[in-house]
Design a protein that fits this description.
Blueprint: H1 2-8, H2 11-42, H3 48-81, H4 90-104
């Protein structure tokens, strides 16, 4: 899919795929930082400084994910407002993720 997109795709298709990949990477990074924050919280052993750091890590990861999704919906809304043929929905993102995971195997 990515190879065909770069050869035959329009600039709108390339941008929408880039946005989908950004959303995938942001979701994965959010999950990683939530796990890291949870492990830091568990290993804090009652140290207030480490607990604060862990809570901030988890909080900022969730805020980052929310900002990413708001940006995604804002781009989709603006593209509809300006009649840009922006064809990106969650099924496209899931298909892209499946293709990435298949290529990793």
């Amino acid at each position: 899919m990515l190879h065909d997109l770069l050869e035959k795709g329009s600039i709108i298709d390339i941008i929408s795929t880039f946005i989908a990949l950004s959303l995938i990477v942001a979701s994965i990074l959010c999950l990683v930082f939530i796990i890291v924050g949870g492990i830091t919280f568990i290993l804090s052993a009652g140290n207030e400084e480490k607990i604060k750091k862990a809570v901030h890590t988890i909080r900022y990861a969730i805020i980052g994910l929310i900002v990413t999704f708001v940006a995604f919906f804002a781009v989709a809304w603006i593209s509809k407002l300006l009649d840009i043929p922006f064809d990106l929905n969650f099924s496209t993102i899931i298909n892209l993720m499946q293709e990435i995971f298949k290529s990793l195997q």
